[in-house]
Specification:
By secondary structure, this protein is an all-alpha fold. It contains 9 helices and 2 strands.
Length: 217
């Protein structure tokens, strides 16, 4: 049993690391194509980002692997595969905590696509419990869990690219006033005490911390 759990944790760590490498690598490549030489002076920073991120991948992967084993072998979680099992989908809530440990992430100035998972290990531990904890409490189809993780990955990378990939008319539209893009999150990395969200702007509006878009784009 212990060997099976260890293999599950190792496999999930590899999956998280590969997801990071593929998604961040893709958007880093896109950045170089769009803005040649932008990262030339940031190579030491990028190496640090990758190092911290791979450490975070293990911290995320181990508990996720244990939970995945518990789901398959023991039925611990409320993840389900039968679409008719529940008439409603329950959307997991993302709780963003801003700690002193977040300084590792904010050492990336300007942020790059490789900074998406560049966290202090203790902050990664905090983040690593959110999804595993939710699947014990909230019924969610395995496919919808995949959608949540995909959205987290894509928005985590694209909002840290250091440039805006969306057209200005989209950023300044009704959709742009609702969803967070790189233009909004860049200001968080510039000023720290504003624009804490990563997905939806209404949380910052409710808390009075939305200061609009970065002026550097």
């Amino acid at each position: 049993m212990l060997l099976t759990i260890a293999l599950s944790a190792l496999a999930m760590t590899a999956i998280v690391a590969a997801r990071y490498a593929v998604s961040s690598g893709l958007f880093a490549w896109l950045t170089e194509r769009r803005l040649p030489g932008r990262h030339a002076s940031l190579r030491p920073q990028i190496r640090r980002e990758i190092g911290w991120s791979l450490g975070s991948a293990a911290i995320y992967g181990v508990p996720a692997g244990i939970v995945a084993w518990g789901w398959q072998a023991r039925g611990w979680t409320r993840i389900y595969e039968d679409w008719s099992a529940f008439p409603l989908w329950y959307a997991p809530l993302s709780v963003l905590l801003y700690l002193l440990l977040h300084a590792v992430h904010h050492a990336s100035r300007p942020p790059t696509a490789w900074a998406a998972m560049s966290f202090h290990p203790w902050e990664a531990v905090i983040g690593a419990i959110v999804i595993p904890l939710l699947v014990f409490l909230v019924p969610i189809h395995v496919a919808m869990l995949g959608v949540v993780l995909t959205v987290m990955t894509v928005m985590g990378v694209t909002n840290h690219m250091g440039w805006e990939m969306l057209p200005k008319h989209v950023v300044n539209s009704t959709l742009g006033n609702w969803l967070i893009t790189a233009s909004h999150h860049q200001r968080h990395h510039e000023e720290y005490r504003c624009n804490y969200g990563l997905y939806f702007r209404f949380w910052d509006r409710i808390c009075g911390t939305d200061r609009g878009l970065s002026r550097s784009f």
